[in-house]
Amino acid sequence: MIRNATKNTVLAQRCRIRRSLFSRCIGLMFAKHMTPTVLAFPYETTADIHTCFVRHYLDVVFLNDHWQVVELVQGLRPWRFYAPKKRAMFVIELPEGTITQSKTKVGDVVNFL
Predict the structure, then answer these.
(1) Which residues, 6+ apart, have CB-to-CB distance to 54 below 8 Å?
(2) Are the beta carbons of 58 and 97 closer than 8 angstroms?
C-alpha cells in the first residue's frame, strides 16, 4: 500500500518495489496493466525517468530519504523523458490522476509497505 501519511489518503492499495538496477530500468516498460511501482535507489540521486515502451499516462512522485515529497509530475505521457530538479531516493509511478485524487503536495510524507 502507498499512503500519504500527511493527508491520510491512499495512493495505491498494491504496488511493486523495484530495488535492483535492472528492475528499476525496466520499471513499467512493456506492462499491459498499470501497477503502481516504486523505484527504490540506495541513496538520493537525480533519478531521470522515461516512459519509452510504457503504454499509460503516469503521475510520478519523488521522495527524499525522509519519505517527503520533493517533486510531482502529473500526466507524464508515453515516450517522454523527465529530469527532476530535486534529488530523490524513491520514485513512485502511479496511474494518471492519483496525485489530484489523493491531494498529494510537495512536503507531504508518503510511505509504502
Answers:
(1) 27, 28, 29, 31, 78
(2) no
The reply to whether 13 falls in a domain is yes
By residue range, what is the domain housing residue 50? 2-102
Overall number of domains in the chain: 1
C-alpha cell belonging to residue 86: 530535486
In a domain, 113, yes or no: no
The reply to whether 93 falls in a domain is yes
Residue 71's φ and ψ, nearest 5 degrees, are -160, 150
For 10, 11, 94, 104, the CA distances from 6, given in Å and listed in that order, are: 11, 12, 18, 9
pLDDT digits (tens, 9 = 90+) for 37-59: 999 999 999 989 999 999 999 99
Closest to 112 in 3D by CA, of 85, 94, 87, 86? 94
pLDDT tens for each residue of 78-110: 999 999 999 999 999 999 999 999 999 999 999
| Residue 16, in any domain of the structure | yes
